[in-house]
Automatic annotation (TrEMBL):
<dbReference type="InterPro" id="IPR019776">
    <property type="entry name" value="Flagellar_basal_body_rod_CS"/>
</dbReference>
<feature type="domain" description="Flagellar basal body rod protein N-terminal">
    <location>
        <begin position="7"/>
        <end position="37"/>
    </location>
</feature>
<dbReference type="Pfam" id="PF00460">
    <property type="entry name" value="Flg_bb_rod"/>
</dbReference>
<protein>
    <recommendedName>
        <fullName>Flagellar hook protein FlgE</fullName>
    </recommendedName>
</protein>
<dbReference type="Pfam" id="PF06429">
    <property type="entry name" value="Flg_bbr_C"/>
</dbReference>
<dbReference type="InterPro" id="IPR001444">
    <property type="entry name" value="Flag_bb_rod_N"/>
</dbReference>
<feature type="domain" description="Flagellar hook protein FlgE D2">
    <location>
        <begin position="183"/>
        <end position="302"/>
    </location>
</feature>
<feature type="domain" description="Flagellar basal-body/hook protein C-terminal">
    <location>
        <begin position="385"/>
        <end position="426"/>
    </location>
</feature>
<comment type="function">
    <text>A flexible structure which links the flagellar filament to the drive apparatus in the basal body.</text>
</comment>
<keyword id="KW-0975">Bacterial flagellum</keyword>
<dbReference type="Pfam" id="PF07559">
    <property type="entry name" value="FlgE_D2"/>
</dbReference>
<dbReference type="InterPro" id="IPR010930">
    <property type="entry name" value="Flg_bb/hook_C_dom"/>
</dbReference>
<dbReference type="InterPro" id="IPR011491">
    <property type="entry name" value="FlgE_D2"/>
</dbReference>
<dbReference type="InterPro" id="IPR037925">
    <property type="entry name" value="FlgE/F/G-like"/>
</dbReference>
<keyword id="KW-0282">Flagellum</keyword>
<comment type="similarity">
    <text>Belongs to the flagella basal body rod proteins family.</text>
</comment>
<dbReference type="InterPro" id="IPR020013">
    <property type="entry name" value="Flagellar_FlgE/F/G"/>
</dbReference>
C-alpha cells in the first residue's frame, strides 16, 4: 500500500539523517584532533520492487559512512622534536605494545618517548628499521614487516670512538741545529673513550731531514703511567724549500705516517691503524712544513693536531630528518643515525578500518600494505617538530548539519501527514 510505503520511506529517512548527524557531530568534535580525517555520509536509494506509471512502491534511503583517509591535513610547527607529520601519501607503522605482533597504521605523529626510550602514542609503538651510523638500513629487505623494530632512542645510551686518523698542521724549524730534538704531543682515544697521550720527537739529522719517533702512549690523566705499546716508525721526513717531499721507514722504503697501539691497560681493544695526515707532499707545501723560526731557541710550531676519536658521551637529544632517519646526538659531539622510520602505503587507503584513537587496521578492501622509506616511491616525506591537523572544515559541517536538520524535519512531517491520513481513513470506515 502506498501510504504504508510512504511512512516506511520516511522512517528510513529519519534513520539516515540521524546517521548523517552522528557523523557530522563526530567530525565537529574532532576538529582539533591531530591527524583526524573527516568522514562524510553516503546516501543510497532503496527500491523494494519495480514500479509503473500507475503505481509506485517507495523504498526509502540508506546511509553509510564514507572515509576520506587520504585527505591531507594542514601541517603546523610545534616545539616537540618527536612530533612528526607526513606530507603526502602513507602512514606511520605502529604495533600495539613494544613486542606486539599485529601491525596498525596511523597519521597521528604526536609521539612521545616513554620511560624505556620507546617512541609511542599511548600503547602504540612506532616501527622502523635499524641503521648503521650513516643512516643506511641494515635489516636487509625493507618490504617485510618482519624487518621492523619498535623504535627505541636508547639503542645507544652512550658512545665512544677509537682514533683512526690524526691531522697534523705544524712547522719544523729549518734554523734548528743538527741533532736538535723538538717534541709535540697528540691525544689518542681508545675504544672505551679513554684519552691517551702520544709524544712525537723530531730529531734534525741533516739540513732538510728529520727523524720522527713515536713514544709509547701514556694515560692523559696520569702521564707517568704507560698505557699501551706503539708500533710504527721511526720515520725519515725529507723537505725541499720548506715542503715535505718524502717519507721513508727505517729501511729507506717510502711509506705513510701510520702506527698501531696494542696492549691497552684500560682493557680496550687494539687500534690496528692510526694514520697521520700531513697533507699533500707533492705539488704543494702540505700541512707539515720546514721553515725558519727566526727564534734564538728554535722549536716546532703547532697550528693544530686533531683526531677523529672521541671520549665517552651520553645521549643528549634526538632529531628526525625529512627522510625519516632518527639521529641521536651525544654530549661528546657525536651524531649517530639509529633508526629509519617506515612509511606504509595502500592501494585503497580509504578501505582501512578505523579502530579509534587515530589508529587504522588493514582490511580486504584496503589491500595489502607496502613499506617504503620516507620520500621514496612517491610516498610522504616526514616533517619533524610538526603535526598534521584535522581535515574537518567546520563551516562545511555546519552547512551539512542544517541540510540534515531540514531533511529530518521534512521526513517527520511525512510521518505526521501519513498519520493524519490514516486517521481520516479509519474515521471514514466508521
Amino acid at each position: 500500500m502506498s501510504l504504508l510505503g510512504a511512512m516506511n520511506s520516511a522512517v528510513t529517512a529519519l534513520k539516515a539523517q540521524s546517521t548523517a548527524l552522528a557523523i557530522i557531530s563526530d567530525n565537529l568534535s574532532n576538529s582539533s584532533t591531530t591527524g583526524y580525517k573527516a568522514s562524510t555520509t553516503s546516501f543510497k536509494t532503496l527500491v523494494t520492487q519495480s514500479y509503473s506509471s500507475t503505481s509506485y512502491a517507495s523504498g526509502g534511503v540508506s546511509a553509510s559512512v564514507r572515509q576520506n583517509v587520504t585527505n591531507q591535513g594542514v601541517i603546523s610547527a610545534t616545539s616537540n622534536a618527536t612530533d612528526l607529520a607526513l606530507d603526502g601519501d602513507g602512514f606511520f607503522v605502529v604495533s600495539y605494545g613494544a613486542t606486539g605482533e599485529e601491525t596498525f597504521f596511523s597519521r597521528d605523529g604526536e609521539f612521545e618517548i616513554d620511560a624505556q626510550g620507546f617512541m609511542c602514542i599511548g600503547n602504540y609503538y612506532l616501527q622502523g628499521w635499524k641503521t648503521d651510523s650513516d643512516g643506511n638500513v641494515i635489516s636487509g629487505s625493507t618490504n617485510s614487516s618482519s624487518t621492523l623494530d619498535a623504535i627505541n632512542v636508547n639503542r645507544f645510551t652512550g658512545t665512544a670512538e677509537a682514533t683512526s686518523a690524526e691531522v697534523l698542521k705544524a712547522n719544523l724549524p729549518a734554523d734548528a741545529a743538527l741533532n736538535d730534538v723538538v717534541t709535540a704531543t697528540m691525544e689518542v682515544f681508545d675504544a672505551l673513550g679513554v684519552s691517551h697521550t702520544v709524544t712525537m720527537s723530531y730529531e734534525k739529522t741533516a739540513a732538510n731531514e728529520w727523524t720522527l719517533t713515536l713514544a709509547d702512549p701514556v694515560l692523559s690523566s696520569d702521564t707517568s703511567s704507560q698505557s699501551g705499546d706503539i708500533t710504527g716508525g721511526p720515520f725519515t721526513l725529507t723537505f725541499a724549500d720548506g715542503a715535505l717531499t718524502g717519507i721513508t721507514d727505517s729501511g729507506g722504503t717510502a711509506t705513510e705516517l701510520e702506527f698501531s697501539i696494542t696492549n691497552f691497560t684500560t682493557g680496550a681493544s687494539d687500534i690496528a691503524s692510526v694514520t697521520m695526515d700531513v697533507g699533500q707532499i707533492t705539488g704543494g707545501t702540505g700541512s707539515l712544513t720546514q721553515f725558519a723560526s727566526n727564534n734564538d731557541d728554535p722549536d716546532i710550531s703547532i697550528t693544530s693536531i686533531t683526531g677523529d676519536g672521541v671520549e665517552y658521551g651520553a645521549l643528549s637529544s634526538v632529531e628526525v630528518d625529512d627522510t625519516g632517519i632518527i639521529w641521536a646526538h651525544f654530549d661528546n659531539g657525536q651524531d649517530i643515525a639509529i633508526y629509519k622510520i617506515a612509511v606504509a602505503d595502500f592501494t585503497n587507503a580509504n578501505g582501512l578500518e578505523s579502530t579509534g584513537y587515530g589508529i587504522y587496521r588493514q582490511t580486504a578492501a584496503s589491500g595489502d600494505f607496502t613499506l617504503h622509506e620516507a620520500g621514496e616511491d612517491g610516498v610522504a616525506t616526514i616533517t619533524a617538530s610538526a603535526l598534521e591537523g584535522s581535515t574537518v572544515d567546520t563551516s562545511d559541517e555546519f552547512t551539512r548539519m542544517i541540510v540534515a536538520q531540514q531533511a529530518y524535519s521534512a521526513a517527520s512531517q511525512v510521518i505526521s501527514t501519513c498519520s493524519d491520513m490514516f486517521d481520516e481513513l479509519i474515521a471514514a470506515v466508521r
